[in-house]
Design goal:
This protein is an alpha+beta fold. The chain is 60% helix and 15% strand. It holds the Pfam family YicC-like_C.
Length: 295
Amino acid sequence: MIKSMTGFGLSEKYAGSAQVHSEIKSVNHRYFECTFNAPKPLLYLEDQVRKIIRFYVHRGSLSLFLSVAGSSAIASRVETNWDVVDQYIRAAKKIEKRSGLSISDANAFLQLPGVFSLREADNQSAKVIEPFILEAVHESCERLIRMREKEGAAMRLDLLQRVQTIHHAVDALEAFVPQIHAQYEQRLRSSVAAFLEKNQAIDEDRLMNEMALFINKTAINEETTRLKSHLQQCSDLLSEDEQEPVGRRIDFLIQEMNREVNTIGSKGNHAEVTRFVVTIKNEIERLREQVQNIE
């Protein structure tokens, strides 16, 4: 099945009072690329999460965001450094004794450095909600894939239509080539007849040799045959039965199509051939741009 590389998936799971939030986004990229964003206590899950994403996605640039709300499992805790507080109290009593000043307000201690410290949750605390986190990641990936498949189905129809348009243009070009040869033969006969004296006859053998050289020089049947083969392979890859990613394979075929069309353009010394070549190249470029978004 054809998949777009653009998508979004969101999942929320509840583990008691904890709310797990998993969000994943993807855009087109030549290879697989993934960034993982999560609170520090959950960073140990990065390898597991990457394996899960890799199971669902083969190509694209992805960003996963994890967050947990309402849980003490990964919340930082404020701790009072009582040893430091005791030292401040002893110092305050000395100040009172020596100066006669009264320092009895506890708020004065709250602003002193070192009284409090922030302790972050460790990995063991986060393991309590780990199953819910991984479940949310799976679900967000599944929703991402559904979106990529839906967009991919629309892109598939567009690509098939463009392939068909190119195929028709190649058929029309092949049908026009005999007219070019006939026109050249007519011009050649007229030129030779005007050059020769009235009592001389046209050397048919020489004329046929010139025609054979021209036809051989301008023949494009090999290029059109290969071009049609590439188009057929594209159509096969875009079939609904295809299960593997096809984006890079189609991209390669498009490069080969461009090579064949460029060769046709260099051989075709005719304005109408040039018009066909421009039309085909424009459609191939549109095809190439669309394929950049396919996995």
